[in-house]
Write a structure and sequence with these properties.
Number of domains: 1
Distance between the termini: 47 Å
Number of helices: 9
Strand order of the largest sheet: 1-2-4-3-5-6-7-8
CATH superfamily: Alpha/Beta hydrolase fold, catalytic domain
Radius of gyration: 17 Å
Strand content: 15-25%
CATH class: Alpha Beta
Shape: globular
Number of strands: 8
Helix content: 25-40%
């Protein structure tokens, strides 16, 4: 590909990433291997769930954040993304992504789990949170998909092919040069190269169906656990979340959609503060 986008994890994070591992879960009769990064250092676990065409690397900044040292950390590649399995018979719906994550987190001993989901991962995390309100104690949605309320940046009229998605992403990177969200978009392009095109299509189809239905926002709002919504300065807070007391809303400055990559020095300390209260 003539379009060169090279941005290594080492240069981005200035620290060696955590060691990779894998676990196999059984879900609806299928054996699915999930690659992940895990650090056990506290009784409470923070589970990070990435967005569409992303990977566990989205959240590597958490491992070098001093204020998160007291937490065990876990970032996972969803099926069809990163290094995880690409099962032919898997539906790739948001519900089944959440179902796989539910079986996966059973393999870890922590009684309290904090969920952090970015974009599509925010929707998956909301569905997951409903499965066990006692164990999942907080939900931090990082510009998470809530349906049409997020605006045109997150709801598309139709599902693109993977090639169409990649070309549009390259165009966005060119337009964003010199802007705060350029780094996040470049990383997105890098991570997308490990995405299964069929897994991308089916996941995006499910996300579009959920978005059009209006159910994502209702699901998010009706969760009884503590909810925090992080939003980028570039886009502002979605209108329906304004003046809602049941949800903490936090703006991260100098950031676009990839909040945790565009401004990790502001995002991760704020995240740690929310987990502690």
């Amino acid at each position: 590909m003539a379009f060169l986008l090279v941005l290594s994890a080492a240069s981005t994070l200035a620290s060696a990433p955590p060691e990779a591992a894998s676990k196999t879960v059984k879900y609806r009769g299928q054996q699915i291997t999930l690659h992940h990064k895990y650090r056990r250092s506290g009784k409470e676990l923070v589970l990070f769930i990435h967005g569409l065409a992303c990977s566990k690397e989205s959240f590597y900044g958490a491992w070098i954040e001093p204020k998160l040292k007291k937490y065990s950390l876990l970032a996972v590649d969803l099926p069809g993304f990163g290094e995880s399995s690409r099962p032919d018979e898997f539906s790739y719906t948001l519900e089944d992504h959440a179902g796989v994550c539910y079986e996966f987190v059973k393999k870890f001993p922590h009684r309290k789990v904090h969920l952090v989901g970015h974009s599509m991962g925010g929707a998956v995390a909301a569905i997951l949170a409903k499965k066990n309100p006692r164990r999942f104690v907080t939900l931090s949605s990082v510009d998470g998909c809530l349906g049409a309320i997020n605006g045109t940046t997150q709801v598309q009229p139709a599902v693109p092919t993977f090639d169409e998605f990649t070309k549009k992403l390259e165009q966005r990177i060119i337009r964003s040069q010199g802007k705060p969200d350029e780094k996040g978009l470049r990383l997105w392009h890098e991570w997308s190269q490990a995405t299964d095109p069929e897994g991308f299509r089916k996941s995006d189809e499910s996300l579009l169906q959920w978005s059009r239905s209006g159910k994502l926002f209702d699901l998010f709002m009706n969760l009884s656990l503590k909810k925090t919504y992080f939003y980028p300065e570039r886009d502002g807070l979605p209108r329906p979340l304004r003046n809602i007391r049941k949800v903490r809303t936090i703006e991260i400055s100098n950031s676009g959609h990839f909040i945790m990559n565009d401004n990790p020095k502001e995002f991760y300390p704020r995240l740690a503060r929310e987990l502690a209260h």
